[in-house]
Amino acid sequence: MKKQNVRTITLIITTFTYLLVGAAIFDYLESETEKRRKVALDAIEKMVIRKYNISENDFKIMETVVLKTEPHKAGKQWKFAGAFYYAITVLTTIGYGHSTPSTVEGKLFTMFYGGIGIPLGLVMFQSIGDRLNKLSSIVIQNIKRRLNCKDVQASETNLICAVTTLSCLTIAGGAAAFSRYEGWSYFDSIYYCFVTLTTIGFGDMVALQKDNALNNKPEYVMFALIFILFGLAIVAASLNLLVLRFVTMNTEDEKRDEAEALQAAQGAVRLEGDVIVVNGSILAGLVGNLGDTASLEDQTSVCSCSCTGFQKKRRRPRFTVRRSPGKISHLLPMQQLPTLNMRSEQRSPPLTPLLQRPPLQQLQRRESV
Fold it and tell me: Which residues span the membrane (predicted)?
């Protein structure tokens, strides 16, 4: 089995194993907390119903109102600032879910907009990541020259380390800003930055959703949008290096297999009809029937050597076989016939058998033949 197939099967098995292990760990970490929260919320619901003497239906109405009002706390979501924020979440595939279109026209345009914008965004981030990797390689080369290193070229490992470090610094710096503006803990801010820049976008924590920030804090809105776009470019650059490192392994194996197959094909001996071919050249022709004789011209055209004494080396793709010739006079050495008396020739009957002629004349006739 080829290495590419083995690697693909190994990746599939490893991925599913990783998913199963992750599901087991998340189950262990979160299931008990979920049960406790459910019990606490049920107790609070019953307490509110008893305290204010309202029915369960009225409580469900109040719950719906609270849930529907939550997105509006950030201000008007579909003015230009909020719409631009939504467009970024669509194009970058983050998809927080903090605001979603409610009209049929808005949903149709979202599908059309995402179908064109998502590939455009991926190409843009890929291009920015390539430029960033190029800049990082130049910086690494300059640093190595100043350190008087023997090898000043930026290796793939150097690039991965540099871009990964830059990604970590971007997440750490953004987390500090979001912790200040949103009032989150620093750990929660790091979690939000990681989920955002990896385009996971759970939507449990979304920036610009408090105190009417979309309308009252334009500088914070500008920072949040630039952070998302710039941070995605940096993280995309680091992820591309990691992914391409594994993708090129398959490409290298395929090229090596093609080179080995080509080399084996050049040294192969194969039979094409009645012709033996070695290394792409015709070696010899074989006669199908032992009683048949090939013409001399065909022998010289098939054989590439000068064993027949002729310099003509014309090749033909197939060895042609002809029937035995009726006359072989062209294969025997020709000799000059002695001058005969033309009158005696005219007097002799034209259809006289060879055996009735005189012995000397018969011998001369044989020599001419």
Answer: 6-29, 78-96, 108-125, 159-177, 189-208, 220-247
